[in-house]
Amino acid sequence: MASHHLLLLVLLAMACCHAIASDPSLLQDFCVADKTSPVRVNGFACKDAKDVAAEDFHFSGLHKAGDTSSSKQGSAVTAVNVAQIPGLNTMGISMVRIDYAPSGMNPPHTHPRATEILTVLEGSLLVGFVTSNPNNTLVAKVLNKGDVFVFPKGLVHFQFNNGKGNAVALAGLSSQNPGVITVANTRFGSQPSIANHILAKAFQVGQSNGGLNASSVLI
Fold this sequence. Notes:
globular, 3 helices, alpha+beta, 219 residues
């Protein structure tokens, strides 16, 4: 009898592990985001199916180049996530177009909720990501037109236009709302700001005139 109980416990443990490891599945055809609903879940509440239209699954605009001239970093990101396509709600996927001026960059940042897969449509990019502590290894590569690169979920990564002309990339992300945490902005542009002595100690830099001049690193 004891052996049967032990076998049952092992089978239950295996089933639980499998359930935890598997991806969540949709329980219906779609859940178009109802942005007017006061209900807030992990995502958006579903619009009534009778009110769903083709436009809920459509976006037009990725054929247009982003305005890189208005960015300090010389890049422009055109996002296509649940904010632009309500039908992406619960689908676990989104995409972006990124335009880069010569020497423009998408500065070091992370996506806390998504892995990213990027392909170069035009130009050449130097891309890379940094592994987590304690090694902090830089994994970098020069990409040309048609090349593909993957940035693992949550890791700091970047893209830099190392060519002489403009560059364009298209990226897919494994979340309807991947989020973006830009490294420089979170450190030096938080509201309220992080105390200067904490930043100085963290980055091992000195303070001048009673403060840190970090405005040049913000985007």
